[in-house]
Amino acid sequence: MTVKISHITHIDNLTSILKQGCLWSDSKRIELELVNQNIGYSHIKDRRLRRPVRVSAGGTIGQYVPFNFCPRSVMLYVIHRGYADFEGGQDRILHLISNTDKVRQTNSGCFFTDIHADLDYAEQIDDFSRIHELDIDKISKERFWSAIKEEKQAEFLAFESVNWNVIQYIGVKTDEMAQEVNILLEGANHQPKVIVKPDWYY
């Protein structure tokens, strides 16, 4: 079962991603001393650097590149509302879209969780025959998700890096953002299609 996955990042990170040719995990990005516009909770990112992974390639959650099984994620709502670590809003956030099969073809160290990976009671699963146990239809399409907040935050995680070539397209909020992204993609070996999807935003 192939499932669409989405990684959000700030447009200011795109040039570095293109130069590196991949998305790095937080742990590897810190090791390489790469500049990054953080859009996540700093205290959660720090905790993920220590939270152990018991399946796949082991290590810690911070050594994995995270994806959600939906655009318009719970974290994007937090970004939209603004918080102490990032008050820049959602307008310049990109959705980098791929699918589970494409990533796993180039990275054998993958697993998924049934809820937010940082929670103590999240189940870590590297048996992908079980991915149907997630209610992907509800996770990806439910716009009013307060009743399924935990399930909405289920994650797909790939060890250390995700090759840029497996990103299929980039979702943005406005035509202006699409133009900016297309300019940054000029000259890149792999240029995913940029699509304007305001319904992926709050």
Automatic annotation (TrEMBL):
Entry-linked PROSITE patterns: DART
DarT domain mapped to chain residues: 3-202
Alphabetical keyword list: DNA-binding, Glycosyltransferase, Nucleotidyltransferase, Toxin-antitoxin system, Transferase
Superkingdom classification of source: Bacteria
InterPro entries: DarT
Gene Ontology MF, one: nucleotidyltransferase activity
A Pfam family recorded for this sequence: DarT
Catalytic reaction annotation: a thymidine in DNA + NAD(+) = an N-(ADP-alpha-D-ribosyl)-thymidine in DNA + nicotinamide + H(+)
Catalytic residues as annotated in Swiss-Prot or TrEMBL: R48, E155
Residues reported to bind NAD(+): H7, I8, T9, R48
Protein name per its UniProtKB record: DUF4433 domain-containing protein
Source organism of the structure: Parashewanella spongiae
